[in-house]
Amino acid sequence: MTIKDYCLQISKLLEKADYEKSKVFIQLGNLYVTHKEEALSIIKKMYGGMGSFNDLVLYKDGKVDIEANEKLSVLREDLYKAVLSEIIKLRC
């Protein structure tokens, strides 16, 4: 999958969970196509610090949605790896 694909998949998962910022990932996927380095930088920064993308937990009916969080965890990790890989390619 491409970085844009990961962003779209995450957006769909977040939208299904009624997460208010789900569209951000659609925007990042589109930005990646037009301004790759800027998108990579923004995505990478989303993973650091308290209250970051890493800390996001999805709920359904007031309870932690284990299935959705497992999917998000995989997508989140795969996206991060893809971003780091792209950054390394750009620096070489």
Describe this structure in words.
By secondary structure, the protein is mainly α. The chain has one domain. It is 67% helix and 4% strand. It has 4 helices and 2 strands, in the order αααββα. The protein has helices spanning 3-16, 23-34, 36-45, 66-91; strands spanning 59-60, 63-64. It has a two-stranded antiparallel ribbon. Strand 1 and strand 2 (63-64) form a beta hairpin. It is elongated and about 45 Å long. It starts with a helix and ends with a helix. 20% of the residues are buried. InterPro entries: DUF6966 (IPR054239). Residues 27-63 form the DUF6966 domain.
- Major β-sheet, in short? 2 strands, antiparallel
Q: Tell me the series of helices and strands, N- to C-terminal.
A: HHHEEH
> What is the count of DSSP helices, taking H or I runs of 4+ residues?
4
Count the E strands: 2
Rounded to the nearest angstrom, the distance between the terminal CA atoms is 22 Å
**Low-confidence parts lasting 5 or more residues at pLDDT below 50?**
none
Number of structural units classed as domains: 1
**Helix vs. strand class:** mainly alpha
Oligomer: single chain
State which percent range the strand residues make up: under 5%
* Widest sheet, order of strands: 1-2
Based on CA inertia axes, which overall geometry fits?
elongated
Cα gyration radius (Å): 13 Å
Helix-residue proportion: 55-70%
| pLDDT averaged over residues | 95
